């Protein structure tokens, strides 16, 4: 009798594999048939990107995450200024319609609370700060901020701080020019705003703007935590990643700890001072000495409140300055007009009866340059800046073309007059495309100095 050894691929096993492949192929074919029916029959003519069953537009959004504003443009042109976009776990609406934005941010603002999902998404960074809370907690922080930022003492203190760090930045730029050193201007501006706003907020110098431009772990972790927390809205898997402690969620857990450890260490050092008699006018000192209902603010409350101010101050000013300088390099005729306005300020003003910077002896050298820059900086008082109308116009136009937050996420409403079904979803307000849209702006408005 002849015995045939089994090769491991007997008939039954082959049938099993064929069956498995058939089932998988059927699932794939069925999925695409389902997708076709959903897209071309059930939702034919639906606005926005193609929505696949279960996944929605997740793949397309993630593929275009780094340039979402540009990605929105074809849909705005084809579908109007509002279109829906569903991801695997949540549905969004993108809008660049001024009427919708006014409704959400102004006329029905109280009807759009941030809600639990928004709070949980940003809690690791924003905590219970003003950007991440609703109701009475939001009103209380807004009231505190409004009172403090309108204070003459804080305004005078911040002016001194900004002038000091501006002179440091001018010195770095002067040295770089003399040595032909290449600088990343956006990095330099973000260092300037980080150092200055941290000094105003916590009364502490972190040193990112030292001449050698060192890497400061806190500053790097701050930027990274902000970036990853913001990206959660486009990552349907972030909660699973957090549970498994993998990917970006493993990174943000570490970076957020660096941020918190540094902030609490700074507050501990400041608490060891005699704040009552320190003469400091920073926000930490002012808030620490503030008793609401006879109670001091806790360290957690101070951390959340002040860190949100830090978040607002760093990126907004640093990115605006970056785009402003970029626009000046593209439009030298605008740069020349701005120079003339500043030159007139230098010529017409004398500080405390002394010479203006233009009247300093032409001795040359580094000492002359630094003295002239310092003298000119003394002219830039709060009131003097209000009279620099051309500078003001250039900054406003820069903000129109390059808004600080080009894409703003907004929560779903409690109960809205907007009857469209997709308005029950989260919304993205596309500030960049709205401010550039020729269907919204008049021809005269579009024909600005920067386009000439």
Automatic annotation (TrEMBL):
The chain crosses the membrane at residues 18-37. Gene3D superfamilies: Cytochrome P450 (1.10.630.10). It comes from the Eukaryota. Keywords: Iron, Membrane, Metal-binding, Oxidoreductase, Transmembrane, Transmembrane helix. Pfam families: p450. GO terms for molecular function: heme binding; iron ion binding; monooxygenase activity; oxidoreductase activity, acting on paired donors, with incorporation or reduction of molecular oxygen. This is Cytochrome P450.
């Amino acid at each position: 009798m002849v015995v045939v050894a089994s090769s491991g691929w007997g008939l039954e096993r082959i049938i099993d594999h064929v069956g498995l492949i058939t089932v998988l192929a059927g699932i794939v074919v069925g999925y695409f048939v389902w997708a076709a029916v959903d897209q071309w029959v059930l939702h034919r003519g639906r606005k926005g990107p193609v929505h696949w069953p279960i996944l929605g537009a997740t793949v397309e959004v993630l593929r275009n995450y780094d340039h979402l504003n540009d990605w929105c443009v074809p849909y705005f042109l084809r579908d109007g200024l509002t279109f829906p976009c569903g991801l695997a776990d949540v549905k969004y609406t993108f809008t660049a319609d001024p009427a919708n934005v006014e409704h959400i941010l102004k006329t029905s603002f109280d009807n759009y609370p941030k809600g639990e999902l928004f709070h949980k998404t940003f809690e690791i960074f924003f905590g219970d700060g003003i950007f991440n809370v609703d109701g009475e907690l939001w009103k209380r922080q807004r009231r505190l901020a409004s009172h403090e930022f309108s204070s003459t003492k804080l305004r005078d203190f911040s002016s001194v701080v900004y002038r000091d760090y501006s002179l440091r930045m001018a010195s770095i730029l002067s040295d770089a020019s003399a040595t032909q050193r290449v600088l990343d201007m956006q990095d330099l501006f973000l260092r300037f705003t980080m150092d200055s706003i941290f000094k105003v907020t916590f009364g502490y110098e972190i040193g990112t703007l030292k001449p050698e431009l060192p890497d400061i772990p806190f500053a790097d972790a701050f930027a990274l935590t902000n970036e990853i927390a913001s990206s959660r809205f486009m990552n349907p898997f972030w909660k699973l990643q957090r549970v498994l402690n993998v990917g970006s969620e493993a990174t943000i857990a570490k970076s957020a700890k660096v941020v918190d450890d540094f902030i609490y260490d700074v507050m501990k050092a400041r608490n060891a001072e005699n704040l009552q008699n320190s003469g400091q006018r920073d926000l930490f000192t002012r808030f620490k000495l503030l008793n609401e209902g006879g109670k001091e603010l806790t360290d957690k409350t101070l951390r959340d409140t002040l860190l949100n101010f830090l978040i607002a101050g760093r990126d907004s000013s640093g990115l605006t300055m970056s785009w402003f300088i970029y626009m000046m390099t593209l439009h030298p005729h605008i740069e020349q007009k701005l120079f003339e306005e500043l030159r007139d300020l230098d010529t017409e003003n004398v500080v405390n009866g002394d010479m203006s910077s233009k009247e300093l002896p032409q001795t040359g050298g580094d000492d002359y340059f630094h003295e002239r820059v310092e003298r000119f900086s003394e002219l830039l008082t709060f009131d003097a800046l209000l009279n620099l109308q051309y500078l003001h116009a250039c900054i406003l136009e820069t903000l129109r073309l390059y808004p600080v937050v080009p894409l703003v996420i907004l929560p779903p409403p409690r109960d809205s007059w907007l009857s469209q079904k997709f308005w029950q979803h989260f919304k993205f307000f596309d500030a960049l495309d709205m401010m550039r849209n020729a269907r919204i702006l008049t021809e005269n408005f579009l024909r600005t100095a920067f386009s000439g």
